Amino acid sequence: MLARPAKAHERLAQAGLAITAACTILQIVLGGRAWQVAAALGLAVFIAAAWSRVSRQARLFAGLAVPGALLVWLLAPAPAPVLQAAVGQSTQFAALLAALATLRLPMRRSPLMGRAAASLLAASPGARHGTVLFGSHWLSLMFSFGVVPMMGELLERAGLHVRSSTVARGMLATVIRGLAMTTTWSPMAISFAIVSAAFPMLGVLPFVGAGMLVAAFLLGVETWSERRVVTEPAGPDAAPVPASPSDRRALWLILGMSVLLFLATLSLHAATGWSFMACATLTIPTLSLVWALAQSRSRQREDGHGRHGARAALSHFFEVLTETRSEIFIFSAAIFIGQGVLAVAHAAGLGAGGTGLPGWLLPLLCLVTIPLVAALSVAPTIAVLIWAQVFAGTASALAAPLTHALALTLGWSLAITVSPVSATLLLAGAMTGVPPREIALGWNRGFVLRSGLVAGAVLAGLYALGC
């Protein structure tokens, strides 16, 4: 009796989110406020239908969005445009998160991912730490925090149990750090969409290129500073990882697909002038669906059940849309909460440029406060959105947009490793039996301090150069 209503609610949530994504794209392509209204209604249907299936934190954020919007209405000089823009951002982020979720379908069924990840563990003991760090960094470009359970499973198969092996835990911590630093520059991450919206004057290629170099530098420093953690024996459980079925060609194929996806999105962006976020919302699910259908066709050649497999692939394609339901709640609500906080700050005379702080200090404060907020179990989205909107009105951000943009994404990257409520650490905690807070402040505290100091020096240098 209870299964049918739950199934109906899930279908309704899928339909609402699909309408949100489709109408968001149509509004960008065709223009007209009617599409935005339809997208907002679709998002409302999704929220109502998915309410009982999201995390407690997601419901809390959704509840706080209401007083946030009320504060804007009461305190902002022109509340209607602010709230309308917030609704537009919410639907765009919801559409992008739904698009990103579709990547899980082909990845989940692809043997390529397992072989690519296994090739990282097959590296020699002396090179394994750096290989896992950089390899997980690149694999997470498409697979996101799914890299954590995948690598954990491979370690288990190799005889290193994450609940008892210090080496396995060290490797898992390395995976988390490599994954987190992808947020610094990945054009397929929600962080990129938020920061790009805040700095429309910053080109896609300069942002991605600079972020990639900074992330590589920080990972290089981490490889050097932690080179003894994984590679030197610490007891009987620290034996070299046995060879797993691996294929470096699979790793390069995954990386090649990531590059092609980026180039396709960039080409669409250049040809149409649409935002990169809108283009990604189109290209990512297209790739996911084509890949999933190709997998079903391959199974047809093997076992003759391809037609049923194709129908199942289409059905699962719509099912995975709502797998990021909690994230959609949090990101959508954070926009209104952030606007409410800004409205209060402006009403109190603490608006952008009114603090009297030097311009070079703002990016450094941003870099420090975002991980601090995350360590208190508050989603870093709130701090990022507030800082993004503060930056948008400062002369220092206009003079050095790249520095301020990287301050946001670097802060978010570090926040992932110290947030006890991040999906990454929750997964790691479930696998290891270690509380996520201990992973955040025990495993990753040194990494955040080291990387924060290096990142601060990099930001100071970029600001001095006027970047």
Automatic annotation (TrEMBL):
Keyword Membrane annotated: yes
Keywords of the record: Membrane, Transmembrane, Transmembrane helix
Instruction: Report which superkingdom the organism of origin falls in.
Output: Bacteria
The keyword Phosphoprotein is assigned to this record: no
Q: Which residues cross the membrane?
A: 12-29, 35-51, 58-76, 137-155, 167-186, 192-219, 250-268, 274-294, 328-348, 360-379, 386-406, 412-435, 447-466
Q: What is this protein called?
A: H+/citrate symporter
